[in-house]
TrEMBL record:
NCBIfam families: PRK13197.1, pyro_pdase. This is Pyrrolidone-carboxylate peptidase. The gene is pcp. It comes from Pseudocitrobacter corydidari. It catalyses: Release of an N-terminal pyroglutamyl group from a polypeptide, the second amino acid generally not being Pro. The lineage of its organism: Bacteria, Pseudomonadati, Pseudomonadota, Gammaproteobacteria, Enterobacterales. Its EC number is 3.4.19.3. InterPro entries: Peptidase_C15 (IPR000816), Peptidase_C15-like (IPR016125), Peptidase_C15-like_sf (IPR036440), PGP-I_bact-type (IPR029762), PGPEP1_Cys_AS (IPR033694), PGPEP1_Glu_AS (IPR033693). It is an enzyme of class 3 (hydrolase).
């Protein structure tokens, strides 16, 4: 049976939970599209996160890799289009590292584009009544670090595809951030299951608008 690797992060920046792992962990051992889903937690640490991700890819030889991260303040499930080759941390990671203007891969490409059918995923989520959009930036913290490293790794594994999705706070987190949007864990779980199923089924992305004016 083919394998799908899905990853979430440990909590960071003072949060008690990270919605990415709270939801991703619920998908461990699920069967989606004839594939077994394996969930792994990554440390919110530059460098270490990629070491663990690459080890999991080497061990599992997955058909699909989907990394998921928290994006407090976002209102929907954001399917990332591109990762850039720079670490520029506004806050320190969970080991106290705070790289500034540092390449993720020395002499690597400036950017890697997701190999997921990002617009088909967004369309499927919206049709299911789940708020979703294409995001044009994964930031410059550990999420972008992981997305870039993932796609760099998969560039040498053409049989696999992968990408990154950001999700909002859970309601219990938003309660501590007045005015911040949130999304229920069950809704996110349904969205990630649909994203995996769509990524497994769709080879050529649909051509619909997903851009932004700024």
């Amino acid at each position: 049976m083919r394998t799908v690797l899905i990853t979430g992060f440990e909590p960071f920046d003072g949060e008690a939970v990270n919605p990415s792992w709270e939801v991703v962990s619920r998908l461990d051992n699920a069967i989606i599209g004839g594939c077994r889903v394996v969930a792994r937690q990554l440390p919110c640490v530059f460098g270490e996160a990629l070491i663990e991700l690459n080890a999991a890819i080497d061990s599992l030889s997955p058909t699909l890799v989907l990394s998921v991260g928290q994006a407090g303040g976002r209102t929907d499930i954001s399917v990332e289009r591109v990762a850039i080759n720079v670490d520029d941390a506004r806050i320190a990671d969970n080991r106290g590292n705070q790289p500034v203007d540092t390449p993720i891969v020395e002499n690597g490409p400036a950017a890697w584009f997701s190999s997921l059918p990002i617009k088909a995923i967004v369309s499927a989520l919206r049709e299911a009544g789940i708020p979703a959009s294409v995001s044009q930036t994964a930031g410059t913290f550990v999420c972008n670090h992981v997305m870039y490293g993932l796609l760099h790794k998969l560039s040498g594994l053409p049989e696999a595809k992968g990408g990154f999705i950001h999700i909002p706070y859970l309601p219990q987190q938003a309660a501590a951030h007045p005015g911040a949007p949130s999304m229920a864990a069950e809704t996110v779980r349904q969205g990630l299951e649909l994203a995996i199923a769509t990524a497994l089924q769709v080879e050529n992305d649909i051509q619909v608008t997903g851009g932004a004016t700024h």
